[in-house]
Amino acid sequence: MTETLLTAALWSFGAAAAFGYIHNIDMRNIIWAAVVGSCGWTLYVAVGSLTGSELFGYFWGAFSIAALSELWAILLKNPATVYLVPGLLPLVPGGGMFQTMREAVQGNMDTALRAGFITLSAAGAIALGLAVASSFARIILYAVHRMCKDQQ
User: Fold this and answer.
1) What percent of the chain shows pLDDT beyond 70?
2) Would you give the DSSP letter of residue 92?
3) Which of 120, 115, 119 is nearest to 102 (CA)?
4) The pTM of the whole model exceeds 0.85
5) Distance spanning both ends of the chain, measured CA to CA
6) Angstrom distances, CA of residue 2 to CA of 8, 10, 42, 45, 64
């Protein structure tokens, strides 16, 4: 399991960093975006292995990506999307989309529908993880600003 997590962390770090480089993100921000992608993918693999549910893995991976992106955005004074988009790249269920289309083209509609449902469920879990983390970040920021305003 440890070797699998280390391999997952390294490959996802590289994928997110390459995506950031291709899209001309500042070099300092590429490293942080790659850390976000690596943490998200590693958490996806770990939670999926421990619970046996890929959907929980997708949710917690996306949640961690969004939470870290919001944190880096505050600390490094950049928009969260600078870290969010490259960080999400390793988590996108592209293989499931490919399988769905391949099975549909070959005429295996039952298999295509099954693969499509799994892929849409993964995309929904990712969207839910992003929404929950972003909502928590906004609530926490609002509370912090309010506390600072009350102390003045």
Assistant:
1) 98
2) S
3) 115
4) yes
5) 51
6) 10, 12, 11, 11, 20
